[in-house]
Write a structure and sequence with these properties.
InterPro entries: AKR2_Oxidoreductase, NAD(P)_OxRdtase_dom_sf, NADP_OxRdtase_dom
Distance between the termini: 33 Å
Number of domains: 1
Order of helices and strands: EHHEHEEEHEHEHEEEHEHHEHHH
Protein name: Aryl-alcohol dehydrogenase-like predicted oxidoreductase
Strand content: 15-25%
Number of strands: 12
Helix content: 40-55%
Structural class: alpha/beta
CATH superfamily: NADP-dependent oxidoreductase domain
CATH topology: TIM Barrel
Largest sheet: 8 strands, parallel, barrel
Pfam family, one: Aldo_ket_red
Length: about 325
Amino acid sequence: MTSAPTSATSRIGLGLAAVARPAYITPSRSADLGASAGERAVERLRALSHELLDVAHAAGVRYVDVARSYGLAEDFLSSWLAARPSAEGVVVGSKWGYRYVGDWQLDAGVHEVKDHSLEAFRDQYPQSRELLGTSLAIYHIHSLTPDSPALTDRALHQALAGVRAAGTRVGFSTSGPRQGEVIRRALELEVDGQPLFTSVEATWNLLEPSAGPALAEAAAGGATVIVKEAVANGRLSPAETDPHPAAVAAREVASQLGAGVDQVATAAALAQPWAWRVLSGAVTVEQLRANLGAAGLDGLDDLEIDVERLTAWAQDPREYWAQRSARAWS
């Protein structure tokens, strides 16, 4: 873990959403992780998470994204940090507001439960802090939507301001077809005359770029902007041949560049000037290295023109999010 980060690679972050719990909505999990419960046992996924973190850090990645609901992601990251004191400069962002309830079962009826109450925050924040300590630099509300009480609960805002006052950046992630509206509403919130939120993690990809204008405004206002789901939960990956025109066009560009469609999708996100970090959700070292390769993708300058063309084919956000919600956990 001695390689110096390059400016492009260091803009990629590693998210542990798909590798720190046995089931998730990404494709080809049986091929990537094995189909049996034993192949997805806690210690095996811990070892895989550590291997991914090692490879990412060696390549220059310094941002890691976890959450209370990502199975044992915080625990896996905590044990990796403890075992590798030389892994300097790692910035950790975590999230509260969902609880993992899948009991490490592949076929659990419910895998996570949303709760944006003050009580949930008071329960989850100490757990995150205990595991991550001073490495916890950003703490997000998980998947803020227009109906979330977290937008209007002033007691919760005061509690979050306490985290901010202690030196941890406070923010939120978004999901759903109204991301732009949520981003603008949340960034207007103030406590004691200061913006409450200064970090945004949002979905942006070639199939669903609708949050782009609001994210540009957020960055212009000084907020840190993190892109999640740049490969659309696997829809823009070599594992799938999604028939949507935007995905087909992205694969054509990838073929022209001699790259993977996941690299094109990641490079497109990196090309957005407002993106501070773009997350890789890789579950294998091969996938991670492919995502990291997007930082040096030949033809990236030309791709900036293609991004505008490709996003013109994007799905209606309501259709995109309905399709995402229908994806099975496996």
